[in-house]
Inverse folding.
């Protein structure tokens, strides 16, 4: 009996010693920390899915479905956000694939996947706008906890995602009405070190056309766009566009998956070397042309076409078919996107022209 007790005591001593040695080894190797956001908690080596809650206000409450993949090893906290514009399906579907591809044991750091940032609009299948307050979520950041639903969603995303991570990918594509070529916004901050990192992120995501964007406001209280909200907080971020006309195209989904994985490799979150875009086309100026009329838009060019300054890109007709405006290119460049469905509304975009840097 005494021998059995001694054996049991010896076993537990050896087990305790092994656990201590394992913990010390993990510590020396850089064990990861617990990650918390909202009511969700993910320990090292855990994958946790759930919702960020957006409280009710002047309009209904909302929820934001997210997944936290928390690696066993220490590393960067990166957020990939889809569905800010809810009719942009390829990035949304891509993040579900990324979720299935990443094992916490292979991951250094933490990956936060915001699957559908604007769930109420996704459920209603709306383009651009939230169905409750008719606001564009990607124009109201950093949000307002006391505002309308879009503003409250933005406030939760700012507090629980942007403020808790170290880098961010804001993933978009051509909305249900936009025929769009793939491209990335490289948003300049004026901070050379930050801009160098975001440039590498843009190259790592892998889309051929990269817009050098110096137009974003540097205002913490009115950052407007999700990606810019991270930038003004001096966190590396890019905004990507891959997919068009609300279609579920395998090529666009795959490009989004590859882009996220490659950015993770750039940050050392996954093993392997990132494949940087080796032949980028830099766009050093861009301009969106808006409609001054309600009516129907008839394109005279297509996405990716080169147009000359003053060239007619499309014609607007009224609801009786009478031509009311010729919409012309503001300068010579490439059509980054153009409206591919007939409805056009005063104040809404018709097309975007980008000038290729020589």
């Amino acid at each position: 009996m005494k021998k059995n007790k001694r054996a049991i005591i010896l076993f537990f001593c050896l087990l305790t010693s092994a656990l201590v040695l394992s913990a010390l080894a993990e510590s020396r190797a850089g064990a990861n920390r617990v990650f918390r956001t909202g009511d969700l908690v993910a320990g090292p080596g855990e994958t946790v899915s759930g919702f960020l809650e957006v409280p009710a206000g002047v309009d209904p409450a909302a929820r934001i479905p997210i997944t936290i993949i928390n690696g066993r090893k220490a590393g960067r906290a990166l957020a990939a956000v889809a569905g800010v514009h809810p009719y942009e399906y390829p990035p949304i579907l891509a993040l579900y694939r990324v979720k299935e591809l990443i094992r916490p044991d292979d991951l250094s750091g933490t990956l936060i996947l915001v699957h559908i940032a604007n769930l109420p609009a996704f459920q209603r299948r709306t383009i651009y706008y939230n169905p409750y307050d008719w606001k564009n979520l990607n124009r109201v950041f950093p949000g307002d906890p006391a505002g309308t639903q879009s503003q409250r969603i933005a406030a939760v995303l700012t507090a629980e995602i942007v403020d808790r991570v170290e880098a961010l990918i804001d993933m978009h594509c051509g909305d249900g009405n936009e025929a769009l070529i793939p491209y990335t916004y490289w948003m300049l901050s004026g901070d050379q070190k930050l801009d160098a990192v975001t440039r590498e992120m843009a190259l790592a995501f892998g889309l051929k056309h990269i817009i050098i964007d110096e137009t974003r406001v540097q205002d913490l209280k009115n950052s407007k766009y999700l990606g810019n909200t991270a930038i003004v907080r001096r966190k590396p971020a890019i905004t990507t566009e891959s997919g068009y006309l609300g279609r579920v195209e395998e090529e666009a989904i795959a490009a989004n998956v590859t882009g996220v994985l490659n950015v993770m490799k750039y940050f050392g979150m996954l093993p392997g070397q990132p494949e940087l875009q080796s032949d980028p086309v830099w766009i050093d100026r861009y301009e969106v042309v808006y409609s001054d009329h309600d009516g129907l838009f008839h394109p005279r060019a297509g996405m990716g076409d080169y147009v000359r300054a003053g060239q007619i890109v499309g014609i607007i007709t009224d609801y009786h078919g009478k031509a009311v405006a010729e919409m012309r290119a503001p300068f010579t460049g490439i059509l980054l996107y153009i409206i591919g469905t007939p409805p056009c509304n005063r104040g809404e975009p018709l097309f975007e022209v980008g000038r290729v840097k020589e």
